[in-house]
TrEMBL record:
Sequence similarity: Belongs to the complex I subunit 1 family.
Protein name: NADH-ubiquinone oxidoreductase chain 1
Places the protein is found: Mitochondrion inner membrane; Mitochondrion membrane
Membrane topology of the entry: Multi-pass membrane protein
GO molecular function terms attached to this record: NADH dehydrogenase (ubiquinone) activity; NADH dehydrogenase activity
Predominant localisation class: mitochondrion
Transmembrane stretches, start-end: 6-26, 71-91, 103-122, 143-163, 175-194, 236-266, 286-306
Keywords: Membrane, Mitochondrion, NAD, Transmembrane, Transmembrane helix, Transport, Ubiquinone
Gene giving rise to this polypeptide: ND1
This protein's GO CC annotations: mitochondrial inner membrane
Lineage, top ranks: Eukaryota, Metazoa, Ecdysozoa, Arthropoda, Chelicerata
One GO-annotated biological process of the protein: aerobic respiration
Pfam family, one: NADHdh
Length: 310
């Protein structure tokens, strides 16, 4: 039993890491088409070996160490970031029955709240003003949009009456929440963009303002780990979105996750970077009241339905 459990974990982790590699290839190809230029197409057939070439290049480069950095925190933060990104997948019990969490969505919120420590540690330990400013931005942005994410998730939980991903999928059989909560899905998707620090909300890595943000002092393997964690989070947020609003769709789950991940990439090639004060105003002045109203509306509808059935 224990051996099977460990093998299942290793199998899904390897699948996630390989998927992250090819998601980068997909992103570069999509951006190439959007910008009317050639994407990666030289390494292997249609560039299929490009992710492996990039991985070899990144992990074989010389590792730089800022002279005044906090050594342990500087090296531990990227590992911690990738570890959290992989921990998310523990709540995915459909095919491999890793851990069937009855409170899987609460576990997701707990793990996602820890991601700010990796960003803060990477920015602070680098002992660079640009990295520190990027960390400030990332922490404020992540905390702000976690509020709207939690409210939207609680709205779905109130309707479905379960925190379990399996029951979320079963209770949406024949009717997806996206049909009744389409505006809420749009808010959820834009909050996911902000939570994963993706364009147009990529202020933690604003190259025009902060050189490269909180990861400016990282190179080689450290930068690769941060990079992998970001794309792993994109894939998992796409997976959670499918379960919350599209009923899980077990037969078309992989295709649905790929399509939502492509939307992350499409947004990057389409929209310019937002302004930071408008980003925070969007979270607290628009998304927070909207999420609260939808949550209270869902409570009222479910309460009246229970009273009518009694």
């Amino acid at each position: 039993m224990v051996i099977s459990f460990v093998l299942d974990i290793w199998f899904i982790l390897v699948c996630v890491l390989v998927s992250v590699a090819f998601l980068t290839l997909l992103e570069r190809s999509i951006l190439g088409y959007i910008q009317i230029r050639k994407g990666p197409n030289k390494v292997g057939v249609i560039g299929i070996f490009q992710p492996f070439s990039d991985a070899i290049k990144l992990f074989s480069k010389e590792q730089s160490l800022p002279y005044l950095s906090n050594f342990l925190m500087y090296f531990f933060s990227p590992v911690f970031s990738l570890g959290l990104a992989l921990c998310f997948w523990m709540v995915f019990p459909i095919f491999f029955n890793l851990v069937d969490f009855e409170l899987g969505l609460l576990f997701f919120l707990c793990v996602s709240s820890l991601s700010v420590y990796a960003l803060m540690g990477a920015g602070w330990s680098s002992n660079s003003k640009y990295a520190m400013l990027g960390a400030y931005r990332a922490v404020a942005q992540t905390i702000s949009y976690e509020v709207s994410l939690a409210l939207i998730m609680l709205t779905c939980v109130v309707v479905v009456e379960s925190y379990d991903l399996v029951k979320l999928s079963e209770n949406q059989d024949g009717w997806w929440l996206v049909w009744g909560f389409f505006p809420l899905f749009l808010v959820w998707f834009s909050s996911c963009l902000a939570e994963t620090n993706r364009s147009p909300f990529d202020f933690a890595e604003g190259e025009s303002e902060l050189v490269s943000g909180f990861n400016v002092e990282y190179s080689s393997g450290g930068f690769a780990l941060i990079f992998m964690a970001e794309y792993g989070n994109i894939m998992f947020m796409s997976l959670i979105s499918v379960f919350l609003f599209f009923g899980g769709m077990v037969k078309g789950l992989v295709l649905s996750v790929v399509c939502l991940s492509m939307m992350f990439l499409w947004v990057r090639g389409t929209f310019p970077r937002f302004r930071y004060d408008k980003l925070m105003g969007l979270a607290w002045s628009i998304y927070l009241p909207l999420g609260l109203n939808y949550l209270l509306f869902s409570f009222g509808v479910c309460y009246n339905f229970v009273v009518m059935c009694m």
